[in-house]
Structures are given as structure tokens and as C-alpha cells.
Amino acid sequence: MTVCILLARGADVNARDRTMQTPLFLAIRNSRSEIVEELLAHGADVNAQDDALVTPLELANRSGSDHVAKQFQAFGGGCVQ
């Protein structure tokens, strides 16, 4: 898996694109729960906000990804701030 290789080589799990989204947003948007799990295991920020103030958990809820929401809870995410 390319993500595992990148993370093993020191890739920033919380790198941001021009819309301030992290790899976690992309994994959720593409329904890649195995990548979501890998990113979370490597310290992905579950409470990160993009430039529209959307968090990964909100994105998962909007897309109906209940499995991802449960993964977040297991990693301590989804806190109301």
C-alpha cells in the first residue's frame, strides 16, 4: 500500500492541500476505510478543519460513513470544540 510506504518514509500525516484538507479528508471522500485506519494509527488529526471549517468527522457523517465515524471514536475523535 502506497500510503504505508509514504508514512514509513516520514510523510506528514497532517499535510494540507490548498483547501487546508489533510490526507484523512481524501481517504474519507474516497471511502477508503483501510487508509483512514492507517492514517489514524499514524496520528492523523481527527479534529482538523479545512478552509470551510469542516472536520473529517463531519465529512464522514455527510457521506454516510458510519464505519469511519466509529473509527474516529476509537481514536478519540469527534469531540465538540
Task: Write a brief structural summary.
This protein has 81 residues and is mainly α. The chain contains five helices and no strands. Helix 2 packs antiparallel against helix 3 and helix 3 runs parallel beside helix 5.
Notes on the structure:
By secondary structure, the chain is mostly helical. The chain has one domain: Serine Threonine Protein Phosphatase 5, Tetratricopeptide repeat (Alpha Horseshoe), CATH 1.25.40.20. It is 48% helix and 0% strand. Helix 3 packs parallel to helix 5 (66-74). The longest helix is centred in the middle third of the chain and has 9 residues, at 33-41. The model has no long low-confidence stretch (mean pLDDT 86).
How are the SSEs placed, and which strands pair?
Blueprint: H1 2-8, H2 23-29, H3 33-41, H4 56-62, H5 66-74
Properties at a glance:
81 residues; mainly alpha; Serine Threonine Protein Phosphatase 5, Tetratricopeptide repeat; globular
CATH architecture: Alpha Horseshoe
| Helix run count | 5
SSE run: HHHHH
- Total strands: 0
> Which structural class do the helices and strands define?
mainly alpha
What is the CATH domain class? Mainly Alpha
Mean of residue pLDDT values: 86
Gap from first CA to last CA: 34 Å
CATH topology: Serine Threonine Protein Phosphatase 5, Tetratricopeptide repeat
CATH superfamily: Ankyrin repeat-containing domain
Shape: globular
Give the count of structural domains: 1
Sequence stretches where pLDDT stays below 50 over 5 or more residues: none
- Rg, alpha carbons: 12 Å
Share of β-strand residues? under 5%
**Biggest sheet details:** none
